[in-house]
Amino acid sequence: MLNLGDIIDGRNDDDVRAEVPTRRAAVPEHLLRQNLEDLALMAGIVEETRGATPVYHCLGNHDLNVPREDALRVLGGNPGRAAYFTKKLPRGWRLIVLDTTDVNPRYATPGSEAQLAGEAYVRDAKAAAAGGDAARVLGAPAPDDVCKPWGGGVGDAQLAWLEKTLADAVTNEERVLIASHCALSPTSARPGMAAWNARELARTLEARSMSHRSPHDRVGVVNADP
């Protein structure tokens, strides 16, 4: 069973109207406590009803009104409590769960290198869109839809891991199911709702699924946000 993210609504206090939405301080204690209680409630319901069925979680933006490690700890289920991972399934299938909240500075520890890198990513993406280069590319978002504050993308380390995992699946003649919260193709979601680097992700997936003609070399994708 897959939870595709946003298992809670969540409460936050940060300014999403800023040019580069980010978090300058930790989530206030009273909001953090409420969000953790909501996550624990939902995780408990899942645990009580799942029986022997494994449950895996994609992280959604609403879930990350608590620190990422806390969300993964409370939800449980994922191997190694990881935000992205792969799991071998029966009958030649492989599950890949991606973290499309990666890169977004709102979901990184305030003042960390990851947050600074995320802020730079947003500034660069918005500058490129404002310059008009992105608008000439099929499927590129309009400037107002670039790096919406509730979104995120797949960072360089995760993308390299994805490419290697897909290559291994082809070598092992496995079929692949990829799950994520945000859509991985820019044309498969409303404007501003796809992953920030959806065009790059789509090229990665299409190249892998089209470069081999074996019936085993198939890639399927499921997302939450429309």
Structure, explained:
The structure is a single chain. A 4-stranded mixed beta sheet has the order 3-4-5-6, covered by helices on one side. Strands 1-2 form a two-stranded parallel sheet. It has helices at residues 29-49, 68-75, 113-130, 156-171, 198-210, and strands at residues 2-3, 56-57, 85-89, 93-97, 175-179, 219-222. A hairpin with a 3-residue loop joins β3 and β4 (93-97). The chain has 226 residues and is of the alpha/beta class. The longest helix is centred in the first third of the chain and has 21 residues, at 29-49. The two termini are 20 Å apart.
What's a concise summary of this model?
The protein has helices at residues 29-49, 68-75, 113-130, 156-171, 198-210, and strands at residues 2-3, 56-57, 85-89, 93-97, 175-179, 219-222. It has 226 residues and is an alpha/beta fold. The longest helix has 21 residues, at 29-49.
What percent of residues adopt helix (DSSP H or I)?
25-40%
Structural class: alpha/beta
| Share in β-strands | 5-15%
What is the N-to-C order of secondary-structure elements (H for helix, E for strand)? Answer: EHEHEEHHEHE
Strand order of the largest sheet: 3-4-5-6
Distance between the termini: 20 Å
Described by the principal axes of the CA atoms, the overall outline is globular
User: Sheet bearing the most strands, described?
Assistant: 4 strands, mixed
- What is the tally of beta strands? 6
Oligomer: single chain
The number of helical segments is 5
**Poorly predicted tracts of residues:** none
Task: Report the C-alpha radius of gyration, rounded.
Answer: 18 Å
In round numbers, the mean pLDDT is: 90
